[in-house]
């Protein structure tokens, strides 16, 4: 029995480089997830882009006769205590929710990427100082930092984006620095320097383009994290108070009605989870693709 | 060994000092005046405000304010709440046990679920059990804790009535929040342990062990797992910090009286010393946990011990 098990295990475990010939790939569960993720993201982004095409009711329309109705064909996700159709509110609210996610990744990634690139490319004491500061930045848990900033600045969409972005900066900086440092010592970079290219040109033409992929992968996964942090801030009441609530705010408003109307909390949370899950699936696939060891691809 | 401990302790102190500077600077730079919190703007004459600013010492330049803050901190004085003048540190310490219990319980859930699923997933790669474990991991990192917490309340408190939906007295109030918060950590740990197990399994020494005729169970659990746990332990250290921060949301969902709740209320009330105090307190805990994690390597990994 013992031999049988270990023999089989040896057989299914050939190392990647032993098998250079690629067979036609079968459609695996991973591909199924990827397709599902793509469809969900497409749908939610469509909601954010053209909400009025998708939502059956206006988000602010209060139907006096239908307060706290259960989910039905007429009201897919039920109605709330104002008689608003939850599905329509969510479709319209997706815009703010996604905006927080994407914008904060853009701001945080640019800022963190720049810091990391400068630190890694300059090296020496500049690198030491920046990375020490970065370590310190990292000791303050992201959500606490975001909370403090959002709380101090007051509720506005821009402030939430800023708060979430700032809390994500050190992570991006670290990844970018590591990549820049490894690229900058590669032969082609040295070759370019040896024929007299200026450091700035070497950076723009060779180091930067070759350093971006880990940052992009991290930014993809960061969209999910940012949406979680952003909706957490909204949930705690630091979100933007607007006529059409984002998902976190809607969920927080539904908490008071938990015992009578489970659907008000359930569906916005489901939307957040579905979107973040999809982003993570795509991010994982991208990471596997760029991972030189291709560890998780099997 | 003693030298390593001393060196790490020194750099930890430096990091704590750094986070003190950072927190102070951020909250100093951000707009908003503490006096707005303390006096009703309709009755605030310029003289009243100036008087109060002088009392609080915030009319002084940055470096003087900071030095005073630092001196107070060193003496264990975290300042007083702007709302009710309660000293901040005793308040944090009073509420910390509830948060510590929650963090410990969630970490326990994360580590047990995460390591077990991660190992099963790697050992049975590409089988049904792997797929399920990976899905659980993905859901764990993708669900907002406030939502999973609310779902748990819906199912186990409102529908089934097994556990209370709120409060912080007794072990049974701990179950649902620990599950909600622990799921996140479990998600990260499953993925981490799976990856690092797979990496270790593909190494040459495993092939050697197999060719020696060692049983698969012994290879996996005695050799592969021990090697795979090194990166996983680092992550567990970082996760404990995240979990401590995650209590902000979970304590609000479950109406628990902990330090997460204090900071959430402090931010709502714009009570600056309270916010500063809790953030700094969390940073200290985070640094201490990571110091312990670093030192624990020498117990897990003999190579580290020998190199010392």
From TrEMBL, chain A:
PROSITE patterns documented for this protein: ABC_TM1
Keyword set includes Cell membrane: yes
PANTHER family assigned to the protein according to its UniProt record, in alphabetical order: D,D-DIPEPTIDE TRANSPORT SYSTEM PERMEASE PROTEIN DDPC-RELATED, OLIGOPEPTIDE TRANSPORT SYSTEM PERMEASE PROTEIN APPC
Transmembrane segments: 32-54, 98-122, 143-167, 216-240, 260-283
Gene3D superfamilies: MetI-like
Span of domain ABC transmembrane type-1: 94-283
Keyword annotations from UniProtKB, A to Z: Cell membrane, Membrane, Transmembrane, Transmembrane helix, Transport
GO annotation, cellular component aspect: plasma membrane
Record-level GO BP terms: transmembrane transport
Compartments where found: Cell membrane
Homology family: Belongs to the binding-protein-dependent transport system permease family.
Main location: membrane
Record membrane topology: Multi-pass membrane protein
Protein name (database record): ABC transporter permease subunit
From TrEMBL, chain B:
Gene Ontology MF, one: dipeptide transmembrane transporter activity
Cellular localization per UniProt: Cell membrane
Family annotation (PROSITE patterns): ABC_TM1 (PS50928)
Residue ranges annotated for the ABC transmembrane type-1 domain, each copy included: 96-297
Bilayer topology annotation: Multi-pass membrane protein
Entry keyword annotation includes DNA damage: no
Superkingdom in the source lineage: Bacteria
Gene Ontology CC annotations of this record: plasma membrane
Broad class of the protein's primary localization: membrane
Key words, A-Z: Cell membrane, Membrane, Transmembrane, Transmembrane helix, Transport
Bilayer-spanning residue ranges: 12-30, 100-123, 135-162, 174-193, 230-254, 274-297
Record-linked PANTHER family: DIPEPTIDE TRANSPORT SYSTEM PERMEASE PROTEIN DPPB-RELATED
Entry's family note: Belongs to the binding-protein-dependent transport system permease family.
Protein name according to UniProt: ABC transporter permease subunit
Organism the protein comes from: Paenibacillus dendrobii
Classification of source organism: Bacteria, Bacillati, Bacillota, Bacilli, Bacillales
